[in-house]
Amino acid sequence: MKLLIKIGGAHIDTSESRLSVAEKLAAVVKAGHQTVVVHGGGKQLSRYLREHGIESEFRGGFRVTPPHILDAVIRTLAGLVNHRLVAALQQQGVRAVGLSGIDAGLVQARRLSEELGAVGEVEQVDASVIELLSANGYLPTVACIAGGRQGAVFNVNADQMAVACAGGFKADRLVFLTDVEGVLDGEGRRISTLPADEALRLIETGVAKGGMEAKLRAAVAGIARGIPEVRIVAGSEPRVLERLLQGQNLGTALIPPKA
Question: Is 8 in the active site?
């Protein structure tokens, strides 16, 4: 099976959490699944900026990224966060390879808006490098930074990066490891299976909002790109990836709209 796993920065912020995630990823790689990882790092980036006397500014859920912030984005996401995760994976016997969307033209983006600075939206994906690596037993581990025309570099939302890479990779399943048990209905109950059109209805009615709204919009975009299933699941669940692949009913599975 071809898997793309998206990991939020909160799940890889400490040596203990990185080790936990690395163990889960190692299990599916060693089972022979072609796997790609896309990771965030917003928490780490905000901390880095704060330590350097810079307050983070967000508009519409996106981090405003002027040139001096972009330098910090590259240092933190493609440097510190990426390399620490790769090191943890290698500690588990996984041949992880640290990448960003810039490498081999994996992800090309364009500026989302002038007011946001170097925030990009994905324009095109060339998945050949992650296809080559994963097919030969390596684990591509991708930071959410993209290239652009004339040598531009863009900060890209990690969920959107994951969807774009999963679509280009033709993943059989995209898994978001999150800090919640799944998508909840209006009564606070977990929804085990959610067609994409019903996911949009949750947003329209205000049941899904904030971080979950953004996650659902990304998941629906993934379904539209041809990914058969997008799973939103708690990353803290023991052996979560193994159990999902064994068919256990964890989190919420987003699927194409009902005919």
Answer: no
